[in-house]
Amino acid sequence: MLGGYTIGYLYYAIALFIASGLLILNIDVKNFQKSKQKKEWKVSRMIGWFNVIAGILTLMMNWVL
């Protein structure tokens, strides 16, 4: 760890959190809403927003630390 350089996969995880959350919100939520599946619509919306928020919070915590 000379010079403060590290090899890590945190940025890939952040990108995957945000990208998967946005894809869930754009694809799954619309499909469940069209087919009138309320429970699946609510759960996929919750999972999508959880992924987006987890990615943003992880990015913010990485900047702070």
What's the arrangement of secondary structure elements?
Layout: H1 10-34, H2 38-64
- What's the alpha carbon Rg, rounded to whole Å? 16 Å
What does the main sheet amount to? Answer: none
Query: What structural class do helix, strand and pairing data support?
Result: mainly alpha
Number of strands: 0
Mean pLDDT: 90
* Topology pattern, helix = H, strand = E: HH
Domains (count): 1
Low-confidence sequence ranges = none
Keywords: Membrane, Transmembrane, Transmembrane helix
Transmembrane segments: 6-25, 46-64
InterPro entries: CLC_0170-like
The gist of it:
The chain is an all-alpha fold and 65 residues long. It has helices spanning 10-34, 38-64.
Describe the structure.
This protein is an all-alpha fold. It has one domain. Helices cover 80% and strands 0% of the residues. The protein contains 2 helices and no strands. It is elongated and about 50 Å long. 9% of the residues are buried. Keywords: Membrane, Transmembrane, Transmembrane helix. The chain crosses the membrane at residues 6-25, 46-64.
